[in-house]
Amino acid sequence: MKDINSKKTAKESKSPEKKTVSRATEIEEIYRGNGRGNNSDQINESEKDWYRNSVSSNRTSKYDWKFWTGLVVVLLIFVLGLFAFTKIFGRVSLVIIPTQGDIFLSGLIPAILSTTTASTTDPALTFSTISGIQDTEKRIVDATGQEKVSTKAQGQIIIYNKYSTAKQSLVTNTRFEAPDGKIYRIQKSVTVPGYTKKGSEIIPGQIEVTVFADKAGVEYNRSNTDFTIPGFVGSPKFQGFFARSKTDISGGFVGTVKKVSTVDLESNHQALQKILRERIIKKARQDLPAKFVLFPDAIQIKFTDVIISDQSQLPAGKTYVALRADLSGLIFDRQELARYLAKQWSPNYDGLPVDITNLDQLQFTLQNKDLLDFSKVEKMFFSLEGKAHLVWLFDLDKLKARLAGVSSSEMHKILASEFPAINTVTPSFFPPWLWTFPKNPAKINLSINNDSKRP
User: Fold this and answer.
1) Cis amide prior to 123 (ω within 30 degrees)
2) Which helix (H) or strand (E) holds 9?
3) For residue 56, what pLDDT is reported?
4) Crossing angle of helices 396-403 and 408-418, rounded to 10°
5) Is residue 231 within 8 Å of residue 173, measured between CB atoms?
6) Nearest in space to 159 (alpha carbons), one of 197, 131, 201, 126
7) Where in this protein does the record put region Disordered (predicted)?
8) What tens digit of pLDDT does each residue of 194-210 get?
9) 3-state class of 241 per DSSP?
10) pLDDT tens digits for 19-42?
11) pTM recorded for the entire structure
């Protein structure tokens, strides 16, 4: 007989056990439609409130996490944007007021040519010379007849001494020979300085002089030319001394030209001289390096008649009146002049580089100007009258490089210890939150105010 009870027991043992489900899970399943009932009548009101609050709390927590994550990302992007903006567009502008002061000038001041040896115990103010600046102008006038003319070409040359450190005198009528054999002479004796050395390099001594053709005629007119000195042939000096033209050598002519009445000649000469004077002084100042100053009374201008042989384009009865202007001048190094004057007239001068910003407002007068030959002068006296405004100088590029990358607070320490020529500085940072100087010196802009005066 089969054991029915034992089979039943085995079957019962194989059936799955009933899972225990929490009431919270049941409520959630009922709301989702997965519960044992088909509606929410199976839960009471308090359970419904509990479920709603639970769902709301979960949603709020999820939204809070997203909000704060997004805020952090936005802030990070904003900070990186500010950094990039500052890096690209950040710059600093400095308004600088240098140390300044006034001195009152009067009396005679001595000066020597820069190539002259000065005393080491009492260094003298030095000057240099400029010459060879030329300009020409012409006018068409009525001719009153004809006349025969014979003129010699003339122009400026520079004589070089590469032979010795000793100076060399050249007498009046010393000859200078061009490559084609034509001879030119000086009409005054000159002394050529000896050469100097810069390391192993020899820097020839030099002097500028006027030469005249040995004979009249257009064939002696020439432009850039090198010259030898025949008097030194057979001597080592022949290779050590030479000359080179600085201006055109012109004006040579032999022949018949149309005449101009004395009255017309004089009136046109005056008009031409006025035109040439203004134009050649302007040209000299434009060509002058910025470090030098040329005072009006330190200028000499020589006017020479120019014969224009080609008059084929002129109408009958007309001719040219033409003049050539040759300018020479005495110039001063601005900083050397300012330091010399500050030392002589300012008892508290500290010896630092200075400039006089109103030199054009001072009255310069050269003593015995009419007796001086600017091509030979080695010492002269002048007066400078008026109130000179001194401004202390500093290296702008060095200041930019020194401030690059430092903080605004460190700036004042650097200025006080390394730039005594600066009185006050007003910085302006862009953007406003920038508190350090850009590492690129090009982004540091400097503006110098020379109008304010230090008490």
Assistant:
1) no
2) helix 4-14
3) 59
4) 140
5) no
6) 131
7) 1-44
8) 999 888 899 999 998 99
9) strand
10) 555 555 655 566 555 444 444 555
11) 0.68
Provide φ and ψ at 261, rounded to 5°.
-60, 155
SS3 130: strand
Tally of helices (H runs) and strands (E runs) in the chain = 8, 23
For β-strands 91-98 and 444-448, DSSP reports them as parallel
Token pair, residue 50, equals 């509990």
Give the tens place of pLDDT for each residue, 244-263. 999 899 889 998 888 888 89
Q: pLDDT tens digits for 415-442? A: 999 999 999 888 887 766 667 888 888 8
Query: What distance in Å separates the CA atoms of residue 54 and residue 50, rounded to the nearest whole number?
Result: 6
Q: Considering only CA atoms, which of 275, 296, 273, 272 is closest in space to residue 284?
A: 296
Domain ranges of the chain: 21-83, 151-253
Q: What's residue 281's pLDDT? A: 96
> What DSSP line would sit under 75-121, residue for residue?
HHHHHHHHHHHHHHH-EEEEEEEE-EEEEEE-SEEEEEETTSPPPSS
* DSSP code, position 18: P
Name the residue with tokens 């007849």: 145
